[in-house]
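FAQ: What does a multi-protein file look like?

Like this. Sequence, then C-alpha cells, then the next protein.
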Amino acid sequence: MSSRDIIVVGASAGGVEALSGLVGGLAGNIPAAVFVVLHIPRRAPSALPGILDRAGPLPARHAEDGELVLPGRIYVAPSDHHLVLRGDRVALTTDPTQNGHRPAIDPLFRSAARYFGPRVVGVVLSGARDDGAAGLESIARQGGITVVQDPEEAQHPSMPRAALDAVEVDHVLGTAEMGPLLTRIAGSAAGPATPAPPEAEDEMTDPVNGLTPVGLSCPACDGPMFELRSPSTPRFRCRVGHRWSPESLLDGQTDALESALWVAYRSLQDKVALSRRMARSAAERGRPASSSRYERVAEETDRAGTLLRGLIDRMNRMTDYRGVEPLPEDRR
C-alpha cells in the first residue's frame, strides 16, 4: 500500500513567516518530499530557499526542471516559473499565469492530485485572494489530506478563508503545530487511488472545447473567458490558458479597469495640453475667436479629467471583499 509522501504548500502575503514556522517543526527524517510555492514578483530573485534551509532541518533549494522527486527535501518554485509534478519528476513551466501569478499555487496542487492522489497532503497558508482553493479542492477530491492555517493567525486570511469555503478541510491550525502534524502524517498509509477527473487530464492546457462562455474578458490577455467544470468553486480560463478563481478574477478586473481609466485620464490630459497649445498659437496669429474656442475645449476637458481622477481615487479608497469581515455563518 502506498504512503503519504508528497506535501505541497502554497503561500502568498505573510507567507514567509508562516513557511518558516511550518518548516521549523518538521522532523529531519520525514519520509516525504515537500514542495513550496510562494507568490513573488515574476522578475525578482527569490531568497526563500536560504530562509527555509536555515529555518528547519530539511535542505531547501530551488527546484530544477526534470529532477527526481526524493523524500526529505524541500523544493521551492523559482520566480516566473510554475512548479508542477509529472510522475516522479519535477517540471518547471512558463505556461500562462494563473490567478495573476507565476508561480501559482493551483498548478502545483492540481498536478500533485493528478499524479499522486491520496498520497498528497495539501497546505494553504497566509495570503491574499484565493489561489490554492481550487487546487486544494482537487487534492481532497482525489483522497488527499487538506491542511489550512487558522485564518485568525494568518497575517492575510483571505487565502485560508477561500480554502475553507471551497473544501471540508481535515485540519485547521497554527503554523507552529503544522510541522509536527505533517511529520505524523508523512509515511502513513494512503487510501486507494481514484481515477483523475476529466479536468485533470492536463492541468495546464486543457482545451476550451465544450466549456461554457461566460461573456467576460481575461484581464491578462483580453481573450474570451470560459467556465471550467467544478463541483463547487467556480473557475474560469481563457483560450490561451490563463486561469482565474473568483476573487482573483475580481481583483484582475479591478486592476484592468484602473489601467483603462488611467489611459483615459492620460488621453484627456493630452487633449488639454494640445488645446492650450492651439489656443496660444491662434492668439499669436491674431485669431482671438479661435483662441477662445480652444481655451473652452481645454477647460471642459480639464473638468472631465478632474472628475475621472476623482473616480479613480474613490475606487482605490473603497473597501472591497478582502476587507469585509465574514458573516457569522461564513466563519469556520
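And here is the next protein:
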Amino acid sequence: MSTHEIIITRPLPGDPAGRLRQAGFTRLWINPADERLSPEQFREVVNSAHGVRAIITTPVDRVDGPLLDAAGGGLVIVSNYAVGVDNIDLAECQRRSVIVGHTPDAVTEPTADIAWLLLLGAARRAWEGVDLIRTAGRTDGTAWKGVAPCELNGTRVLGKTLFIVGAGRIGLATARRALGWNMRILYHARSRHAEFEASPVNAQRVTLEEGLQLADFVSLHTPLTNETRHLINAQRLALMKPEAILINTARGAVVDEAALVEALRTRTIAAAGLDVYEHEPKVHPGLLALPNVFLLPHLGSATREDREWMMRLAVDNAVAALRGKPVPHRVA
C-alpha cells in the first residue's frame, strides 16, 4: 500500500521535490506526465495516497466535494499554483477546515507584461502581420509585396484612455506600464484604491458602464466569481467604442466568448487580445477564424524566473501548513 503525504498534480518548474525533502517531507507523489489529470484520475490518485495531507494543484485541477471526500479527513492544505482559486470550492474547503493557499506576487509583473503584449499586438495588428510576412516568397500571387501605405494600419496607443477592470496587483502593474504611453487611466473596483489614484498613476475611479464607454483600451483583471462570470457580455460590449480594444488576462469566463465573437465579427469593437479562454483548453472556433483578435495560450506568468518563484511559494505554503505555522499566502 502506497502512502503519499504530499501530492503534486503536475511537474512544476525548478525542483519542488528537492525543496520539500529539504524541509523534511519525503513521501511525495508527483505526476510523472506533464498532462492534466482528469477528475477521475485526480480522485483516484488522491484516494490511493492513503493519508494525503497536502495537495499542490494547478488552475485546471478541480477541488470539490468528491475530491475532498477522496482525500479523507487528514488533508490540511490545498496549495494552488496560481493566484486565482476559481478551480477550488472555497466554501467546501472551509467547511472541512482545509486551508487554501495561492501564489499572488509571482504572477503580477509577467502577467502585466502579457497584457501589454496583447494590447500592443492587437492595436498594431501584429497577428495579421505575422500571417502576412509568412507569405513572403510564395509564387502563387499571394506573397507579401513589401510595405504599402494602406496595409495593416492599426491604432495609435500614445495618449489614449486605458480602463482597468479589477484593481488588484496585476491591474495596478498594467496601469503603471501605461505611463510610458502618456495614457489617461480609469479603473473600476468595488471600493476606492488610493494606490491607483495617487501619483504617478493618477487614475480615476468610474463605474463599469462609464469606463466601457470612455475607454480606447479595456484591460480585465478581475477574479472569476459568480458575480464576474460573463461580466463582459453582449450588452456591455455594445457600450464600447467601435475603435476600442478588449484585453483579457484574467479568466476566460469573465467574458461571454460567444458575444465577443459576434462583437468582433460585426466590428462592434475593433479588436481583442486574449490570453485566457472560457472553456480552456478549447478555444471558440469563431476566435480562431477572425483576423482581429490576438491570441496567446495562457502565458500570463510564463517566465522561467516567475514560474520557479510560483513553485517556491506553493511549496512553502504547503510546508508551513503541515508544520502548523501561518501560511504565507493564505486565501481561506
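Q: Is there any per-entry metadata?
A: Some entries carry free-text notes. For the entry above: Residues 108-295 form a domain with the Rossmann fold fold (CATH 3.40.50.720).
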